Amino acid sequence: MNFRIHLLIASIVFSIVAMAALAQHEDDYNTLLAINHYDWTVRLDFGNTLMRAACKVEITNNSNRSVKKLPFVLYRLLTVREVKSGGTSLSYVQNIRSFEDQVRLQSNFITVELKKPLLPNQSITLEIEYDGTLHGYTEVGWNYVRDKIDPNFTILRPDCMAYPELGYPSNKINKQFPKANFDYRVSITIPDSLLAVNGGTLVSTNSVNGQTTFEFKNMEKAWRMDIAIGKYGRFTDNGLTVYYFKQDSLGAKKVLTALQKTISLYTNWWGPLNNFKGFSIIEIPDGFGSQADVTSILQSASAFKDSTEIHQAYHEISHCWNVDLKAPSPRWEEGLATFIEYLTIEKLEHREYLDYMTDWFLQVIRREVTNDIRLKTVPMVDFGKHGMTDYSYSLGMIAFRILYEILGEEKFNHSVRVFYKEYSDKEATTEDFMRITKQVSGKDMSAFFSDWFFTTGYIKYLDRQSTFDEMVMLYK
Ligand SMILES: [Zn+2]
User: Which domain holds residue 404?
Assistant: First the structure.
């Protein structure tokens, strides 16, 4: 999905430029640059705990002015050796810098000088060669980023800045870049005794002299690249894959069963998927932090030992039935997926969970309304426009639970089914979804949609300290 919100970002950029602390970047930073494609080649040398990489990045200038320098951040122990474009070397400067708003976070900040300015809407491909090692970011307080080049387990991922991303040593500025949304191809060479895994498609493997090269590409537009290397086993069924550590094979079978049950539950509710490309779960050791990408989850080992830890997969798999919402998307599909995640716990694990989570999200929203006054004026349909999509999860979860209670399970699922069927190949709006709920249920749902999606009418219930049941009753 395309979340680029150019006008808003431009206005934020201007207000940030005014801040003296950031004046050092005033000349050159431009947060309307975007990477569309990565082509990343990596070779791991476990004997010397080194990685050697070449990363081709295709960058588009989405701003309305020309750009002469391109800024990148890379892990602090990775050093750039050469930057080329079209076979010609480019000059660049690299320095280890602390983030201006997080002093313990250090990265290699690289500025590449272009031979000629990159004009608005133009793209350029750079090839960045670099090498070095990884030693985690525990000093920052990110205890889960303990990434190392280690034959027992290695993970290459953005959390440890293992590949170059557009950015500055500044969280404030980097937040203004649009969410990454790119295609990728990754080629990684490791000893034959190990397996490399990735959430995309395995294109090829090729073994030469005891070294195997695995080549992957993304299945859907991605916002991160993750490659895990270890002694993996694999279970697979109908596009579902579980990569596991050998000692956890029993748990891995259960995880695969849970994925199968989830797909069949949702197929039952919302109809068959048109274009299912596959989904995988990749086990990582405990303490490395679970993460979700669009077609895979990095899941810490605990979920392989305790099946009640698998709910993130319910959330991610439910996204397969989402429809693209017109940009700037309000991202309320995150509220839907969050609601479905907890509903699925009740359905598949027979544990009561929805009431608990609803109350918890209500508390979160009540607290956020006092911290962030935008919640009183910006309705959910405009969250994308205002960079507020974090609230699409919490407020959206409550909204979808209310809708579920008003419509009842059957009509709710039927609405999602019809919406998916009608719009799976084109963009939709919130109005389209509202129309379908009315068509399916025969009820006029406009009061509910007005309060929760099109206006901030829900504030009155929060002010009155209404309980969840009281809110539902108002629409019945
Ligand atoms: Zn989600």
Answer: 322-475
